[in-house]
Design goal:
349 residues, 434 Repressor (Amino-terminal Domain), 6-stranded parallel sheet, HTH_LacI, globular, transcription cis-regulatory region binding, Rossmann fold, LacI/GalR-like_sensor, 3 domains, alpha/beta, 13 helices, 12 strands
Length: 349
């Protein structure tokens, strides 16, 4: 009994108690709490319900003694603080659930990218998560592949065939938003592009153009502004679009940070929102509900994507430790159109 207790919980309940309540084997419970991908969603839900009802807490010290500490590296260089915040919360939460340590390294260019990867390796990282825009940087993925480092790309628009990835369909998400604006009667729509190095930014822009063409509408060059996914770049883009003699009736920004910047510029111009200007974003990060009016946006489940990415990476690490070949997996999570107060029907005929 003493040995069983050491494998189980510090709360008193054991892995065998959880197995009995869930109606599964102790091995299945072990797979679930260790984050194995070889468990069905139904079984995982049963086990997690039993875990919660019994207040079962995994003894991470005992686990580390058995299988060794797992260290998950995260290499980041994302200009959107809102996106990065949501990503980190999800990654930290899942690492905590799986008894893994999360190690962070930031890079800004090719030179610092190589140095950051070296630091993660020196810190004992067993695998590395690569969020945007680095997930679309061939040099970063090549460097990780050359050293045989387990890698998972997060939020890439075009996943590499040889690299596991978690993403949404950015093209369909942006097309859904464009069609929504058109359904509200908007025909004169401005668009703010994202970082050109990021494939989802390219796909969102293409989807906007295709959606407008689908409605028989052309997009004049002056209705498109460059952005970098940052709030500051959104301010410049908003001034460009709203400083024209004839303003668009709606602006679709490639992410919420830039959409929030449009809201700020519009308020500074004393425009009535959304009556005089509809504003929409993408991602549904916390900033979408901290501005007024709250943003209509496409919900990208960033936290869930980070959790799924950690799950895939830990599975790769464990396979590597026991000598099993890696399995490349591409997970596509659903997006949602979230309608809030920043969008309404146009008054312009």
């Amino acid at each position: 009994m003493e040995q069983k207790q050491s494998e189980g919980a510090v709360s008193g309940a054991t892995i065998y108690d959880v197995a009995r309540v869930a109606g599964v084997s102790a091995m299945t419970v072990s797979r679930v709490v260790n984050g194995s991908a070889q468990v069905t969603a139904v079984t995982r839900d049963k086990v997690m319900a039993a875990v919660e009802s019994l207040n079962y807490q995994v003894n991470f010290a005992a686990r580390a003694a058995r299988v060794g500490t797992l260290r998950v590296g995260l290499l980041y260089s994302n200009p959107s603080e809102s996106f990065l915040s949501a990503l980190l919360v999800g990654a930290m939460d899942q690492c905590g659930q799986m008894g893994a340590q999360l190690i962070l390294e930031r890079c800004t260019d090719l030179r610092s990218q190589r140095a950051a990867i070296g630091k993660l390796i020196a810190s004992g990282a067993d695998g590395i998560l690569v969020p945007p825009p680095l997930c679309d940087t061939k040099s970063a993925l090549k460097q990780l592949d050359e050293i045989g480092m387990p890698t998972v790309a997060v939020a890439t628009g075009r996943p590499s065939p040889g690299v596991s990835a978690v993403r949404i369909d950015d093209y369909e998400g942006a097309l859904t938003m464009t069609r929504h604006l058109l359904s509200l009667g908007h025909k004169d729509i401005g668009f703010i592009k994202g970082d050109p190095k990021h494939t989802p930014a390219q796909m969102r822009y293409q989807a906007f153009l295709d959606g407008m063409a689908e409605a028989g509408l052309e997009v004049p060059p002056e209705r498109v502004a460059d952005g970098l996914f940052t709030y500051r770049s959104g301010l410049a883009a908003a001034r460009q679009l709203l400083g024209q003699a004839k303003r668009p009736t709606a602006i679709f920004a490639s992410n919420d940070d830039m959409a929030a910047a449009v809201v700020a510029v519009a308020h500074g111009m004393h425009l009535q929102l959304p009556e005089e200007l509809t504003i929409c974003g993408f991602d549904d990060t916390p900033v979408a509900t901290t501005v007024w009016p709250e943003l209509t946006t496409i919900h990208q489940p960033i936290g869930d994507m980070a959790r799924a990415a950690v799950d895939l990476l830990v599975d790769q690490i464990r396979r590597r430790r026991v000598g099993e070949p890696p399995v490349v997996q591409h997970k596509l999570l659903p997006y949602t159109l979230v309608k809030r107060e920043s969008a309404t029907a146009t008054r312009r005929k």
